[in-house]
Amino acid sequence: MASLTLPPAPPNPRQDAIDLQKAFKGFGCDSTTVINILTHRDSVQRGLIQQEYRAMYHEELSHRISSELNGNHKKAMLLWILDPAGRDATVLREALSVDTMDLRAATDIICSRTPSQLQIMKQTYYARFGTYLEHDIGHHTSGDHQKLLLAYVGIPRYEGPEVDPTIVTHDAKDLYKAGEKRLGTDEKTFIRVFTERSWAHLASVSSAYHHMYDRKLEKVIKSETSGNFEFALLAILRCAENPAKYFAKAEYFKKYKKPLAEAIHSETSGNYRTFLLSLVGPGH
């Protein structure tokens, strides 16, 4: 007779807070315990742990982590304990700051988020940093790249699966006229289609374009545009065609032909490596 396997008891955020405090208080920080607790809790649970920690020890967990850990491990752990919108806002703020400017990273985050995620992210950005995301985008970007990002964070796009085939065909024709058919590129048309349409719609436009003109839309973007503008358009298109590409571990393997865990192991070390490997989990 098979033995009955009980589901694991849900983690107790109060106990987690106590265990974290013990790990901090020892001779040197017990980083392994900190990693084991925080990497095996979801976003909601991590939020509850922080509430408990604040209530019990009258200190923010983030402050304690900041004083106990260091280097990339500290940076990664401080991002990990944030909710997704807080994490996005924090990374964006750093990517849009003069000293740590990384427009590719900023573009990647913005262009791979849904309209509802962008809305929450914008609110969080303002609440945390006292300035509008749009202001920082406008200050640090330029040209068509700037126009596209500002439109992408500002236009409330449809998020459902329904697509109107007539509009899809129309958009495919417009993109053809704006790019391959003419000398030079009409960037305004690319910006309009890519910032006003849903991911499902854009995926259909890409398919229709290939069918109608025997050329992949991705190749058109690469030949007709350049720089950060090209990078942004490709990020939007790839998310529309395959959102998993930006988020799933299996996609890493398909692209780079080696497991993500193997790459982490070869590129990192110490507690930072342990932390990242814990997030990836076994079998990757």
Automatic annotation (TrEMBL):
Classification via SMART domains: ANX
A molecular function GO annotation: calcium ion binding
Annotated PROSITE patterns: ANNEXIN_2 (PS51897)
Transferase found in the keyword field: no
Entry-linked Pfam families: Annexin
One GO BP annotation of this record: response to stress
Domain of life: Eukaryota
UniProt keyword annotations, A-Z: Annexin, Calcium, Calcium/phospholipid-binding, Repeat
Record keyword Repeat present: yes
Similarity annotation: Belongs to the annexin family.
Designated name of the protein: Annexin
Source organism of this protein record: Zea mays (Maize)
